[in-house]
Write a structure and sequence with these properties.
45% of the residues are buried. A hairpin with an 8-residue loop joins strand 7 and strand 8. Helix content is 35%, strand content 16%. It has one domain. It contains twelve helices and eleven strands. The protein has 358 residues and is α/β, with parallel strands linked by helices.
Length: 358
């Protein structure tokens, strides 16, 4: 049984049939929101951003939301293999002590500790990210509008109810409540068009890098919103996965020619977090025609601890049993080395029988 599944849009498939896949073919790499699920991609990240892309000299756009933004920013650090190993270790061992009778920590407590972790991780190294010679980073956040313009005990739940209801009718209508704000490497154009959803762009800087990255990871009601990010419009900023859960963006007509290589934890590229239950929005569209997507085989996932990928529910399931959660997550990440091994083997001897329609 293969651990890795490879999917391709129609244009990407034509390319693979004629040329296979070379590192120089890749123009864009997205990183999805999804919390601990992203841990399963560690070995793929270390191979892709280590020896494989390291052998080329062309520019590559990295687009991330939530943990995907953390992963993509990590790729921009010097010695990325070491940096990804630290990210995996730090993420697995993060712990929020629960008081007696408490099922989950407060949003304020999680935000405070998470902010300190980001500060420790990127302390003194932000210039490495902003001035990477080849990688152009794009951090996706969601900025609140109207009732969601400031975080509020009553206004925020009502605002998200409004966002949920309008999104059910039409995804673009949710822009009345939340807009996509992308913080990008200065001078870098976006590798996707923005006619699909209300969008703003802000240049990344040393002053706004950490707030933007924390905002992109700030799940509503789990973490506090980040307010008034330097250089950006005033307001409350939340997890980029709300507007762009799996970054189902219009890559089909990017300003730079090339393929989109997407290490993902599932086949479906769900547009927004509020679309998770809207199954009719889970299919591929022409926006993904140039995409090659790498994902774990669902049957292989059943062999992992608890027969699933790590996820946020594990924080509640294991509670204060840090050792138990660390053991389960570590076993899953160690097993995921097969994903990278199988991808390397396919690159060496491309077999189109293994490439499925996206």
């Amino acid at each position: 049984m293969h651990a890795l599944k490879i999917y391709a849009g129609p244009k990407a498939r034509q390319h693979l049939e004629r040329y296979g896949l070379q590192a120089a073919d890749v123009a864009t790499i997205p990183g999805a929101a999804g919390g601990p699920k992203g841990l399963i991609l560690g070995p793929l990240d270390r191979f892709i951003f280590g020896p494989w892309l390291g052998s080329t000299a062309h520019p590559v756009h990295l687009v991330g939301a939530s943990i995907g933004a953390w992963r993509m920013a990590t790729a921009c650090l010097n010695q990325p293999i070491d940096a990804f190993e630290r990210l995996e270790r730090d993420y697995i061992h993060q712990h929020y002590e629960l008081q007696p009778g408490q099922k989950r920590p407060t949003a304020g407590h999680v935000s405070e500790l998470f902010g300190k972790n980001l500060q420790d991780f990127y302390g003194g190294r932000v210039d490495e990210v902003l001035h990477h010679p080849r990688y152009r980073l794009h951090i996706v956040t969601a900025r609140g509008r109207h009732l969601l313009q400031r975080e509020h005990r009553l206004g925020t739940p009502l605002g998200y109810l409004g966002a949920f209801l309008t999104n059910t009718v039409h995804r673009k209508a949710m822009g009345a409540w939340l807009e996509r704000v992308v913080f990008s490497t200065p001078g870098a154009g976006l590798p996707f068009t923005t006619g699909d959803y209300r969008t703003r762009r802000v240049p990344l800087s040393p002053a706004n890098f950490n707030p933007a990255l924390q905002a992109s990871c700030s799940i509503p009601f789990v973490l506090k919103a980040v307010h008034d990010i330097p250089g950006a419009p005033r307001g409350a900023y939340w997890d980029g996965g709300i507007t762009d859960y799996h970054l189902h963006l219009n890559y089909a007509t990017p300003p730079l020619a090339g393929l989109v290589l997407y290490p993902h934890f599932q086949k479906n590229v769900v547009p927004g977090w509020l679309d998770k239950s809207l199954m009719w929005r889970h299919g591929a569209t022409r926006h993904l025609d140039t995409m090659v997507l790498l994902a774990p085989n669902p049957d292989w996932v059943k062999t992992l601890p608890n027969a699933k990928l790590p996820d946020r529910n594990d924080f509640t399931h294991y509670g204060n049993d840090l050792a138990g959660r660390v053991k389960a997550w570590s076993a899953a990440t160690q097993a995921s080395a097969r994903l990278a091994d199988e991808f390397q083997a396919w690159l060496a001897r491309p077999d189109m029988k293994q490439v499925l329609p996206l």
